[in-house]
Give the backbone structure.
Amino acid sequence: MSVWLSEYGISTKIFAAVEISSSLIYGASSAKAVSKHFRKQKLSVLFWGFIAFVSYITPDAYVLINGRTLPTIYYVVIVFLAVSFGAYAVVVIAKTARST
């Protein structure tokens, strides 16, 4: 897998570091956004929500930016999955915030 991805300009070591670090940031910032929502701190919710959004898209952005000549279907799949899972996360967080 590493050799195949390196042909397209994607380092699996860098991707792993980006993925792990952004996952930690995403988890912490989305939890902060929800806790700030409970406290009715709208500006803080927007701040932490933005941090969560940026950390969520960072691994995908790495692949999209550094993937030279990836087949078009890979770009389509990456964008589709990012949008789908991102929308699902927003729905779940909004539902959780409303129910409490």
In short: The longest helix spans residues 72-99. Helices lie at 2-6, 12-38, 42-66, 72-99. The chain has a mean pLDDT of 90.
